[in-house]
Design brief:
alpha+beta; Aminopeptidase; seven-stranded mixed beta sheet; 4 helices; about 35% strand
Length: about 170
């Protein structure tokens, strides 16, 4: 991929095609999500929390990856808990893109008073598990046979990062 410098920016509609393409690539690899097709931009945009959507772009403006969060519940007790997704273009992996995106997410969520960021990761997605561990996430446990993916029951590893500054 072109451009070696990575810059984190707020995700906008101008990034839509590239964000959804990276999402589609992750879906096709089969180890990132239970989803079987990428949503429309309207669906994606409506589901993700506006203040917690970031893209990593290179010097040419090409999107290398993205991170976004959703509320886990509308109950007030869970107001400070979000679930996130992070996707990196296959050609941009192992270049610090995922780490930079998670750092941006932690920064935006802590600034908003969010105390827990969580995610469910397929156990086979070892790259994502290592990325999250390095970013301060801990394994909470395995959710066994939590959902079907192409007709097969799949487990997910539940990971979370509790903010040390939100008490």
């Amino acid at each position: 991929m072109t451009g070696d410098t990575v810059r984190i920016a707020a995700m906008t509609a101008g990034h839509a095609d590239q964000v959804l393409d990276i999402y589609r690539l992750g879906i096709e690899e089969g180890q990132a999500t239970f989803e079987t097709q990428a949503p429309t931009w309207a669906g994606f945009d409506a589901a993700k929390l506006p203040g917690h959507r970031h893209v990593a772009v290179d010097t040419t403006g090409r999107v290398l990856g993205w991170v976004a969060a959703v509320a886990v519940s509308d109950r007030c007790a869970y107001a400070g808990v979000v679930e996130h997704s992070v996707y990196v273009h296959p050609e941009a992996r192992n270049r610090g893109v995922g780490s930079a995106l998670l750092a941006a997410l932690v920064s935006s969520t802590e600034a908003a008073g969010i105390w827990t960021v969580q995610s469910g990761i397929f156990p086979e997605n070892t790259g994502s598990l290592v990325l999250h561990e390095r970013a301060g996430f801990r394994v909470i446990g395995i959710r066994e046979r939590i959902g079907r993916h192409h007709g097969v029951w799949r487990d997910v590893v539940l990971v979370e990062r509790r903010s040390p500054i939100i008490t």
